[in-house]
Amino acid sequence: MKRVLVCEDEDSIREFVVLNLKRSGYDVVDVNCGEDAVKAFDDAGGNFDAALLDIMMPGMDGFAVCKSLRERSAKIGIIMLSAKSQEMDKVSSLMMGADDYITKPFSISELVARVDAICRRVGLMDSQKADNGDEITSGPFVINLKSRVLLKNGKPVDLTQVEYQIMEFFLKNQNTALDRMTILRRIWGENYYGEEKIVDVNIRRIRMKIEDEPSAPRYIITIWGYGYKWSSGE
Description:
Blueprint (H helix, E strand, L loop, with lengths): L2 E5 L3 H13 L3 E5 L2 H10 L6 E5 L7 H11 L4 E6 L4 H9 L4 E4 L4 H20 L7 E4 L2 E4 L4 E4 L2 E2 L4 H11 L6 E2 H9 L8 H14 L9 E4 L3 E4 L4
Parallel strand pairs: 1-2, 1-3, 3-4, 4-5
Antiparallel strand pairs: 6-7, 7-8, 8-9, 10-12, 11-12
Helix pairs in contact: 2-3, 6-7, 6-8
């Protein structure tokens, strides 16, 4: 059974979310503040597939919780809940390491669909198998499809599960222009509700980890008005 951590300070919203996630077959742990969310994660030894985090909370807000959980786990899927529709909240969430965001008010069907998608992605990472030694090399990068690790000049790059999947997709399609919608559907699923902008923010985050100069990228090249292309940098 997939396990979800729900952190929401509004009791009525939290109880509604928890009830419907349980009805959908999830094991749910719920808390009403950021400090308790981090404690619950640590007490469970990080045994969660996904976390739903409200952004606006007293004390430790959702951004801080997201950052803390992401430092503890690259694997857990993180969805941010925000009462605001401002672009900066969305971008900030993703830059902190979140995988997705939902703006309140939201329909429960949309929320469950997002959780389903993110848990499938986490499960896919656990279940995918590759032949031992199955690697792809490009310039200074080597991606091992068995251990699901990316190396740059022999040193591991710390990636979230979404970032890894994007990198794997790029390295399997080197020198091929990939439009944003293709990347979105490949990584977030065919029925993803959100915006293409989530692709751009994740690319920005990956560039900060792999590029020597993120503002002048050599490897993930922007195709203006279209999408991105992977180059070996040579």
